[in-house]
């Protein structure tokens, strides 16, 4: 039999940091320690992504239900309708299941859309099923995972029915440090960002809280991050007294781990619930069931298995585009489209490394885009700071705000004129063309404050917390409030927001026109990436929300 490798990203073996490529033990990123080969009887859980049908029709449907000028705008699909559209063919399902059963793999769960199979097996069986794979245990910061140290292959007749197999290669990215080093003198009299400051800057009144029956919002956590209910209650007691709010999470999906609360988890939850105030909130948390699971993939699988979901999800998670295979990212994009056609808004943080940098030999450095921030099917949120940190003033770029151009995905039509306008207007000041792909999906789409937040973590109020993991739940909360008002008028959820956002042409948004973000530390760009300009730019997108104006623009259908 001929074999085809499902993982074709071998060029990625040279990555200096983390990577999801087929790795030999000594090529695992150095922050992971190799513990040893796993026992042949070690239980594993593998996720098989079966090839779907009608992807082009799915994309066309997403365009029609998300474009405000389309007669189908807002006519979202149910999970059952999505399933009947993309469900793998009978042949695909039969071939994959027969292949698994012939190796004794029968303990499998299928999602409602039939396009993911999650199977329990042993390392010994998995290595026979996927020739070339060799399972090892790795550890980092007290976390232990099981992954394959080598590329796997599958028979050609099976390969054409699979997008990828999850649970082999992708390593969780390292959690970000969301505390900024504080160097300014007199910093302790600094304003700091709290719900009151955000509500003042974005023009939310005490009356701007949720009231619709059928509204909800969610945050998703993947990196062994947990929240403590007591932190949320304390945060609302200290910072939420001026507006009606909820002090408890509506639902936790997955298993909350024990131990200390994570700063990132506390930040996400406290700020989506104080901006999208009085709106029931879910937390999707790392199920933590299995060392071989990939938590981000696990969340995507859950979305395909739940017919009732919150309307807005905010996710502060990303990895370098070049550390993931194109096949994997393309399939994840299909999952994002499946959420969008159901009317779900997915907001991802743009990242905290500016334009990023991939340092290559002979000075051929390039910027380094992040995924899922670079997906054309999500709304990506960048970050800003106050111009004057001592009072509520206008905003400028936060130098960490992730942004740039995808090297994998082409520029979607909804943003083409805005991005071309930017490239023309700043042509003389752009970084050298070799640093970025000017025809790629450009991000972020918009922004919010990302600098110097107050967070309650393990019962202690902590200042100086920064990152686009702060701005993302803030914008998510604002979209939830707008959905709330739309529902009360009998209008559908905003769903995939980008096609409508780019047609607003800045309406309801404060333009951010000052400052640049980080880039490569080299002679050519000297630490700078892109710079903010009037209108859209790849640092702050269209800008930050002016709630009453944005609401007014989005209450007409």
TrEMBL record:
**Where is this protein primarily located?**
other
Active site, per annotation = 264, 268, 469
Q: Which Gene3D superfamilies match?
A: Peptidase S8/S53 domain (3.40.50.200)
Q: Where is the Peptidase S53 domain?
A: 192-557
Q: Which domain of life is it from?
A: Eukaryota
Which top EC class is given? hydrolase
Q: Name one GO molecular function term.
A: tripeptidyl-peptidase activity
List the catalytic activities from the record.
Release of an N-terminal tripeptide from a polypeptide, but also has endopeptidase activity
Where would you find this protein in the cell?
Lysosome
Q: Which cofactor does it need?
A: Ca(2+)
EC annotation from Swiss-Prot or TrEMBL: 3.4.14.9
InterPro entries registered for this protein in UniProt: Peptidase_S8/S53_dom_sf, S53_propep, Sedolisin_dom, Tripeptidyl-peptidase_I
Q: Which GO terms describe its biological process?
A: central nervous system development; proteolysis
Record keywords: Autocatalytic cleavage, Calcium, Disulfide bond, Glycoprotein, Hydrolase, Lysosome, Metal-binding, Protease, Serine protease, Signal, Zymogen
UniProt GO cellular component terms: lysosome
Q: Do you know which CDD domains this protein is assigned to?
A: Peptidases_S53 (cd04056), Pro-peptidase_S53 (cd11377)
Protein function: Lysosomal serine protease with tripeptidyl-peptidase I activity. May act as a non-specific lysosomal peptidase which generates tripeptides from the breakdown products produced by lysosomal proteinases. Requires substrates with an unsubstituted N-terminus.
Name the UniProt record assigns to this protein: Tripeptidyl-peptidase 1
- Which organism's genome codes for this protein? Kryptolebias marmoratus (Mangrove killifish)
